[in-house]
Structures are given as structure tokens and as C-alpha cells.
Amino acid sequence: WGARVGLAAAAMYCFSPTVLAYSALLVPDACAAAFAATTVLVFALWCERPTWAGAAAFGGALGLACASKFTCLLLVPPLTAAAWLLGRRQHRLRAVCGQLALAAVVSLTVIAASYGFRGLARPLGAFPFRSQLLGGPSASIEAPGNRFRGTLLEHIPVPLPEDYVLGIDRQRVDFEQGFWSYMAGRWRKGGWYVYYAYAALVKEPAGYLVLFAVAVVSLALRPRQFWTWVVLGTAAFVFGVVSTQRGFSHHYRYVLPALPLLYLFSCTALVPPTRRRTAGRLLTATACLALLLGIAASLSQLPHSESFFNYPSGGAYNGHKHLLDSNIDWGQDLLALKRWLERHPNVKLDGIVYSNLFARHLLKAAGLEQGTLPVDPSRSSGQAHLSRRLTGTYAVFVRALYELDSPYAHLRSVDPVHYVTPAVRIYRIDER
């Protein structure tokens, strides 16, 4: 689509609050997003010059993507379909299928190498699966099973490392068990099909959303472009399949591998349409303005990109009305709290109310382990104590304040004396 679209998409990606937030965290999502974008780029280069070396490069990129996060396995169906359609259109389907086979071999080799080739080619019937999908209806964490034992598939070697296969199975267990999830002020057991779409509507800058809408409208004003549909279709497939997993809905970052492709599609709105030029110029100007406003909105909240919510949704300080978990804080604001306390030595906290699976370890790592309350009420033996009214000065994290059955719920009606970040509030409570 030219340098204009390429540079705009790069800027949109690099200044995205979602990308800025998760690139700074020890989670694989931003890494997977970068590998997913690279894979689609190498795939496009191979399709334009279909050589065996290009197919091997595509396989290598795909292998790195799939090794970084299981979600990138969802790139395989749409890209394979695109290659098949292109090969059929160019009357070279046999050559394309052969090169795709090479890409598959290279991809599997890269994945195996990333695991040191441990447990490679183990028979399918030998795995102790714990999910009901792979282990059978009676499988569980305590009693693994294998629905393929005693079938014709039992002795087929799996061309993936043992830990990779078991990791997919373990992820499936989480979705089958289900967890309490939060969206738009509501808690429920399990998730929602619309969770990630809703998260995008409140977490992406309003300018980005307008730019995407303009790109969709511009589709009607352009001649059919094969690559536009490949990029949009691949992103939609990844986004859609992740959305169908309703065991729980916690983290917008799970669809991050689709975002660079959606950003790239959005920036095609910057190419003036060839039909209805007056309307096309208006759409292009709107797209340019939307991109600039979206970037400005993201930069306005640095360095607290994790807590970003767009202005139509109420902004960062109202994010808890929409989403919780890593959509607001995932540990990084503990460091912001520490820096704030260093700048305000006269403030002496009586406790820190923080809720996270690794809360105690994170507090200790941030040097905030002194003077804290038990930080995970659901697992604390002191839950009865936590239910009593607090007195003193406390740093309270939003997630602990609004989580299900929070023992700190009474603080929601108390005005904080200071906001350290959108995710951290300082309360001073007098005993009454």
C-alpha cells in the first residue's frame, strides 16, 4: 500500500497504549504480536515471489510466532487458505502446495528447537491429558486421561515437543473449568463472546476506532484488493476464535496478536479511493486527523498506558467501570507507588491493599512488603479481620476494591485523598 500506509501503521502500533503497556510486562503477548506481524509480512513477500527460500523463511517466521504464544497457531488456517487461493488463481497450485509443505516442516522444526527437541514425536496415545477435550469426559487435573488410546490414532507420532502439547492441553483446562469474569460492572462465572470487542471499544483510542471505521467504509470505494482481505481476514479469524473461548474473560492482551494486522488495515484508509474522489478525499482527511488524535490521546497518559481507557468511555479514572485485571494494573503501579512514597516522606501508610495471584512476591520485589495488609483475601486466613472497617492511611489498588465479594467494598463510597495513578488510590480513614 505504499510508504504512507506503512509508516502510519508503524506509528499506530508503536504509540498504541495497548502495545506500550504490554511490551513493558513479562508476558508473551507483545512478543507474539510482533512475530505475527512479521509472519504475515514474510508470507506476503513469499506469495509475490514464490521461491523455495521464501517458503522456508515463511515457515521460520511462523515457527517463531507459534513458539512465542499458542494464539499464533490461529495464523495457520487463514494464511494457508490465502496461499491456496493465490496458487489456484495463478494456476500453480501444485508448486504452492509443495512449498507450503516445506514451510510446515521448517515451522515445526523451529518450534521443536525452541523446546530443545524434548519429547518430540511422542505417540498421541502416550500423553496424560487433563482437559476433557483431549483427555475424555472423565479427565481432570487429578486424573488425566487420553481419549485417543485404543483408537487408530493412538500410535501416530505428534510432530511437536511434549511440553508444547501439554501446554495447549493445560490452557484448555482453564477454559473448561471457567473463572469469574468482569465486564461493564458485572461479574459472572465464565466469559462473554463480546468481551474482546467491548474491550477494544473502551481500551483503544477513539481516534483509532474512527480510523478503523473509515477503512471499513473505504472498502466500498476501492477495487477489490486481495491483500486487504488477507490482512483483515487473518486478524478477524484470530480475534473471532479467541472470542469464542468463554471459560473466562480477563485480559484484552489475549487478542494482541491480531492488533498489528487491524492497525495495518485501518491505515489503508489513508490511500485515496479511485471512485467518488470527493468523498474519498474527505475520508482520507478524516483518517489522517483520527490517527493523529489517537496517538495524542495515547501519549497524554504516559507512562500509565496500562490503565488507558478512551475518553468516550470515561477515561482512565473510570476504567474500573468497564474492565479489571491486567486491563488496569498488572504489577507495574507498585513501582509508581514506591516512587510516590519516596517523594512524600511525610506519608506513612498503615497498609497496602493489593490483589494479585503473586501479590506477596510482587510487593516484596517492589520493596513494599512492610506494613501491608494480607493482600489476597480469598486465600487469606485473616479474612474475618479484613472484613472489619479499616482505619488509618492506606494505598488501595482498584482491582482489590472492585473484585467480587471484596472485603474493601465499603471504601468505594469514601473519597480518596489522592490518586497516585489511575489504578492506585490513597485513603485516609478516621475511626468512627
Q: What share of the residues does DSSP label as strand, in percent?
A: 5-15%
Shape type: globular
- Tell me the Rg in angstroms: 25 Å
Mean pLDDT metric: 89
Largest sheet, in brief, is: 4 strands, mixed
Strand order of the largest sheet: 3-4-6-5
Which structural class do you get from the secondary structure elements?
alpha+beta
State the helical fraction: 40-55%
Distance separating the two termini: 66 Å
Q: What is the helix tally?
A: 17
Strand/helix succession: HHHHHHHHEEHHHHHHEHHEHEE
Stretches where pLDDT is under 50 for at least 5 consecutive residues are: 374-387
Number of strand elements? 6
Mind explaining what this structure looks like?
With 432 residues, the protein is of the alpha+beta class. Helices cover 49% and strands 6% of the residues. It is built from 17 helices and six strands. It has helices at residues 3-14, 17-23, 29-48, 52-68, 76-89, 93-114, 132-135, 162-177, 195-203, 206-218, 226-243, 259-267, 277-299, 332-343, 359-365, 383-386, 398-402; strands at residues 180-183, 186-189, 351-353, 392-397, 418-421, 424-429. A four-stranded mixed sheet has the order 3-4-6-5. Strands 1-2 form a two-stranded antiparallel ribbon. The N and C termini lie far apart (66 Å).
Question: Keyphrases for this structure?
Answer:
4-stranded mixed β-sheet; 432 residues; 17 helices; single chain; globular; alpha+beta
What topology emerges from the helices and strands here?
Elements: H1 3-14, H2 17-23, H3 29-48, H4 52-68, H5 76-89, H6 93-114, H7 132-135, H8 162-177, E1 180-183, E2 186-189, H9 195-203, H10 206-218, H11 226-243, H12 259-267, H13 277-299, H14 332-343, E3 351-353, H15 359-365, H16 383-386, E4 392-397, H17 398-402, E5 418-421, E6 424-429
Parallel strand pairs: 3-4
Antiparallel strand pairs: 1-2, 4-6, 5-6
Helix pairs in contact: 1-12, 3-4, 4-6, 5-6, 10-12, 10-13, 11-12
